[in-house]
Amino acid sequence: MKKTIFEFNDYKNYLRERINDSPSKGRGAKLKMSEYLNCHTSFISQVLNGDPNFSFEQAVKLNTFFDHTKDEARYFILLLHSERAGTNELKSFLKEEMKEILDKRSDLKNRLDIKNSLKKVDQQVYYSSWHYTCIHMLIAIPDFQSPLAIAKHLNLNREKVMEVLNFLESTGLAKKIGARYEIGVTKIHLTKDSPQIQRHHVNWRMKAVNAIDENIPSNLHYSSIISMSAADVPHIKEVLIKSIEECRKIIRDSKEEQVQSICIDFFGV
């Protein structure tokens, strides 16, 4: 998986990697850059391997050249500004600006552009038990859109299933069509500062423990305790978040056939 610009603290290292990863690579990539910036390839090499820096005007053009997003463009300019900064005070200020972008990216709601559709009072119910989230996802599957099918699949009594379905319907998370239930609002995500986030994590970690006990071969469980440098911690976090983004791209176009749970933990001990 290729690194993103947010994993670099030096814009020259970032550019060198982008050049090496480009289809034309090496001299070919530098030639295209030089033509776009209207400068000689030798100047590109001097910047990448020596003391000179690009101008801010050139940096803006490079944002277009590399098709940076708004956040990527802002971060790239800050990296360049930090390299050119003449005082420690300015460097510290720019470092805080970059940290703000990284903190924003670490919040998955911002990364995945998810809108929270539940009122806070309804969130307390929805995240109180795994039953609500699980049944909500099950009704996306044609084979599990009736109370009886859900009850049988989850080994729950019909009264409990109906309690959940009535709640989902009342909040617009489900819609009833005849005797069947279908998905209503589908995009729901708790922010990391939500008071419900702890309950939600615990609900599905408990289900994960049950799944481990069942020892089903098709399931995947991975646990590892490691020692590593503090500088590499944000890099690992970025890789994991990118993996979640890639999974969501696959899930978005995937046919609803079964419900799966994804639980990822990466924390200091």
UniProtKB/TrEMBL annotation:
<feature type="domain" description="DUF4423">
    <location>
        <begin position="115"/>
        <end position="268"/>
    </location>
</feature>
<dbReference type="Pfam" id="PF14394">
    <property type="entry name" value="DUF4423"/>
</dbReference>
<protein>
    <submittedName>
        <fullName>TIGR02147 family protein</fullName>
    </submittedName>
</protein>
<dbReference type="InterPro" id="IPR025537">
    <property type="entry name" value="DUF4423"/>
</dbReference>
<dbReference type="InterPro" id="IPR011873">
    <property type="entry name" value="CHP02147"/>
</dbReference>
